[in-house]
Structure formats: structure tokens, C-alpha cells
Specification:
408 residues, alpha/beta, Rossmann fold, 3 domains, ten-stranded mixed β-sheet, two-stranded antiparallel ribbon, 14 helices, 19% strand
Amino acid sequence: MNYNESHDLKNTLKSMKNTYACEQIGGATLFNADNLSVLRELPDNCIDSAVIDGPYGVGVSNAKNENFNPKIIRKATRKHQKGVNHNQQNGRCPSMHAGDYDLSRKGQIRFQQFSFEWAKEIYRTLKPGAFLLSFCSPRLYHRMACGIEDAGFEVKDQLQWLFGAGLPKSLDISKSIDKLLKVEREVVCPNPNRQGRINWDGKPKYLTLPASQQAQSWDKWGTGLKSLNEPVLLARKPLSEQSVARNVLRYGTGGINIEDSRIGDDGATKAVKITDENDVRKAKVVLLDKGRYPTNVIIDEQVADMLKDKATFYYCSKALNEERNAGCEHLANGNHHPTVKPIALMEYLVKLVTPPNGICLDIFAGSGTTGIACCNQNFGFLGLELEKEYFEIAKARISYWQNINKAA
């Protein structure tokens, strides 16, 4: 970022703090505001990268996407209410409610338009050659990708985060047939996979036998697979210069950080080593233990064990409760955001696409994981979060990790 760009952004953010609720935490600037309103006030070509984990669709019952509204989630899930046994998981789990999207054709078109609207503003604020990384679900990824591409971005690649644990979302066809025929199924025993927990609808979950001949014919048939992946779009704002080299020299953007994103500490990286300083012709190829070249596949430890390969892929497990809640102990409900990404995963991604001393943007800041990753990797961060409760969670978590880094 050159002086003029830095000065313009700094002055703009300073003036915006008089309009919007804002918190400055070291190099992280966090706004509690509508993301499009804030984006439209930012200067052109002022941001170095964007790494976001936004909604994976639009809600069924409203024009605005309120799937992540904490009050609506609590009402739907009966979470954080007195008298509720949280170990029983009464009501729908928060992540299930957040993922209850409108999958009709109209809903998908709305989601594509929603993606286009925010991508268009991100496009304007990013420097030429800057990269955008955006998570989505496998089912609606194509709609998000089309919206982002229509906003002007070049789609460069698709990363895949693979993990070994997930919940199948599948309709039991046999049960549906018996329900349609209004016949009662024989209960065999409690479902051992539920471990005594109550189902999301508040009713116990049992294993049952088909009651009708038609249901028997369709026993063990379903409608969906267990999802063990999340795709991540890698897109780039087109270069303004005639080559990547010219663009990098002018804006500091246009490439990805291969060296610092290498996987592991060993690998077959080859280099030429001069064996005689007085004669450059005397050289040999040597292997350097620098780690393997970064790939577009990220796996968790369970998948790594299945593949028996922890060297080829970067691997990262889902966020544990200790990590989710660190810094949120003073908050009444802790970190109750429904979809928290692991810090290590976001560190890897921001490091991959953000140049040294660059500023990374997240317009769906949520519980602040991207902001934590930026602080840990010494990048600037600009986060936008509409919901006040999540803003407070993000503020607490980023502050916690900022203090950890200062003490180190």
C-alpha cells in the first residue's frame, strides 16, 4: 500500500468512526454496522485482500437473510433459556438453523444476487490483482461463484476443506411413506447414534421397522450424502497493469504467498546450489527441507489418517470449544455464533493471499476468527459485523489473542 492509499483509507476510517459503532484493537478495525453501508464509503483500490465466510444462502421466510440473527436462533433452538438442559440439545442446533436456506430456484437466484451485491463493493475497494477467498456450501457454491464472477472477479481456483466429521442431511424415504400412509411403525430401540439426546424437534429418536409393504421396499433409502467438505472460491480482481510483475511493483498485489504457505517442514523441493563461488558453472541440484508446495486441498486430522498422508496437504481440524470461547468467559452466553471456523485455517488462508503489511477485509466478521488470524500473522484487519452480539464476541476474542501476542 503506497502512502496516498494508506492515508486515504486511514482518514476515511477515522471519519466513519463518528458514524458507526467501531472498535480499534491493535491493527484490527471492527465495525458494528451494515456491511454494504460501510463498504460504499471506502475509497477505491485501498484493500489488499478479502477472506470471508458469509451466509451460504438466503433464508426461507424473509427477504433479508436473518438466519444468523442471534435472537431468532435462540427462539428457534430454545438455547440459553432457563430450565433447558443444554446437554439434551433441545430444539434445533444453532448451526442447523443458520443453514436452513431457501433452496428453491427463486431462493437460489436471490442468493446469487445477494453474492453479486456484496462482491461488487468488495471488487471496487480491492486493489487491482488482490485476491478474494470466500467459503460456501457445496450445494450453493455455483450461485455464489457466478455472483462473484459477474461482479468482475476472475475465478482462479477452488480450494476444498475436507473433514472427517459431519451430519448427514437425508430424508428417510421409508419413514416418509409410512407417514404418508398413516401407519404406525414398530419401535425397536433408542437410536444409538443419538447417544440419548433428544432430536431437534424435541422428540426422542428411535430406530423403527417399516410398517407397510411399500415402506419395506424403500427401507434404508435416503435423499442425500453426508457432507464432509466446504469449498472455498479463490478469485482475483483483474490486473490494471500489463503484467503481474508491473502490477506487483505498483500495488503490491497480484500473487499468492507460496513460500510462507508451504506444507510441513520437509519435502522434495529442488534448488540449484553453487558449489564454487568462483565458477557459477559448477552447480548441483539439491533437495531443501522447506515443506511441500501448497495445494488446493485442506484436510483435518481424521482425513489425514484415512489417507495416511500428512505431508502433501495442509490439515486443520474444526474449532474446539476451548478455542471458540477463549476470551468470551465474561459474556453471558459465551461464543454462541453458530459457525465458527478454526483459527489455524483462517491463518493459513490470510497468509496465502495477503501481502506483507497488507490489510485483509472480512465483511461477515461473525465471531472474529479472520481478525484473530490477521492479528496473529501481523496483518491489518477491517471487519464488518451487523449483529451487536456477534460484534461483542469478535471484539472479545480479538482482544484476547492480541494480548496473547503482546505477552509472547
